[in-house]
């Protein structure tokens, strides 16, 4: 576990800093889906994912899974553009490697499904 | 030559070399192929040259199982048959459709796709189709604006459909048939019984009846049953005075394995940016289009049935009433008018500049898995000519639904990979453990498989030459011989298969 992910793991959700709060919100924005469906739909996908993958149904786990791709871990100080680029690449890789999941009828990359789940948690 | 069987003396004897029973797409295609030769061809049509309500009532029958269209209106019963209102959709079967697939029980034809090639080309002429070309590259060379979605064709490929005008056999070929000296068309000649020779190995004669109270007999060297899948089975089963199980039914196969194409809205494609979709468009007058199909390798890997997805702008699709709701009357003309009005209204109102929001309905067309319990049998009721009515039990399985779901998943992965959008399947497909079907589930009015083909009499009613096993001079033409249904509409293949049968019979007659 990297220092960054360790830090994320131990930050309590309700008392995170403004910087971390922004970081989490940036992680919770599925770039492609935002262009083709509304916030309500993304929220519903997120809730369905939480129901479907119960072990990931919390903010801490989702943040950890989204920021860390195994080789690199995003720092919470990362700019939004860097977060988007990082996650877009992960989404591309997911589709390339068939790391996909059907959630609420949508055929999605696992990464963007997790983003939806995080969105539904942060937008509660 | 045309003879109205109602006007003949009762108990007349009609004789010829070959007797074709049924004047629909199969029967007329065969008759056209036998014109201007030395053989006397008897072409029997139960109806007249025009629609007749009382004749149409002879197709009435009950249905059980999966909700289906009224049998009375699911086929047309007059010269030209159901081509009187077909939409003209044509495509060839794929090589995999003929193969034994270990994940599809009862699959595997005794012929291969290549056996039909030359006959497909000939069928194109009869159906007034364009060039015998089903490779999308060919069409894209003719029209570079036909652009493929960016999918990996080793997984999802563009399967081409061509559209017949549509050819209405009843009007297109009426004069040709009537003016052919050696073709003797008898209308109002409903075959109600087949009589075999005493040894049961050959047809001796068939009995025809009509509303005028006339009954005639027909003798020929060769008989070809070409009445559509329901009626072919019905005639064989109802001809039970010599053999209680009926003709050709010693292994209890006649009527079984009834297949339809599931044709059902199933999902949506959402694009991030506009994409030129001309390749996938269908409007009245379209000559060709592509549907998205799954490669043989992927079907094999995921153990799924063969099916395709067509794309319709959601603004148009939303205005179209499900076929199972629109086709609810016993009067086929009323249903057909409603259907045409519904489609043409939606089509005319569509303005690509205004209505194309990058959202497309995905509509599945998929083969039904061969299922012995999905079947035509005889009811206890009799029709007005005293013939036992047919009854349909249409039975689907979880296999079809699992396949539809997987097809969407595979397309969704490809669309996601290309980065142009996402695929969403409809609510009824969300739960992979739910095998129920929604109310709008319908078929394509494509009846197939009730006299399936096999070299083994215990597995099929007819052999690879469409000859009824153990009955030397009885053949079956049409989609009832299909072993599996493939994804495409059946007409092109049934005409091709009929022409193949025609060649075989011609060769056999020459040898005699």
Structural write-up:
The complex is a heterodimer of chains A (124) and B (512). Helix content of chain A is 62%, strand content 6%. The longest helix of chain A has 17 residues, at 80-96. Chain A has 124 residues and is mostly helical. Chain A has helices at 3-10, 18-27, 31-36, 39-52, 59-67, 80-96, 110-122, and strands at residues 100-103, 106-109. Chain A has a two-stranded antiparallel sheet with strand order 1-2. Chain B has 512 residues and is of the alpha/beta class. In chain B, 28% of the residues lie in helices and 23% in strands. In chain B, strands 1, 2, 3, 7, 8, 9, 10 and 18 form an eight-stranded mixed sheet that branches. A seven-stranded antiparallel sheet of chain B has the order 5-6-12-13-14-11-17. In chain B, strand 15 (375-382) and strand 16 (388-394) form a beta hairpin. Chain B is globular and about 70 Å long. The model of chain B has no long low-confidence stretch (mean pLDDT 96).
Write the layout of secondary structure elements.
The complex is a heterodimer of chains A (124) and B (512).
Chain A: H1 3-10, H2 18-27, H3 31-36, H4 39-52, H5 59-67, H6 80-96, E1 100-103, E2 106-109, H7 110-122
Antiparallel strand pairs in A: 1-2
Chain B: E1 2-4, E2 13-21, H1 25-33, E3 41-44, H2 53-56, E4 62-65, H3 71-74, E5 89-90, H4 95-98, H5 117-126, H6 136-142, E6 156-163, H7 169-172, H8 174-179, E7 183-187, E8 190-196, E9 203-209, E10 215-225, H9 229-238, E11 261-271, E12 288-294, H10 296-302, E13 307-313, H11 314-317, H12 323-326, H13 332-349, H14 352-355, E14 359-367, E15 375-382, E16 388-394, H15 398-418, E17 421-425, H16 427-430, E18 474-476, H17 491-511
Parallel strand pairs in B: 1-7, 2-3, 2-10, 3-7, 4-16, 10-18
Antiparallel strand pairs in B: 5-6, 6-12, 8-9, 9-10, 11-14, 11-17, 12-13, 13-14, 15-16
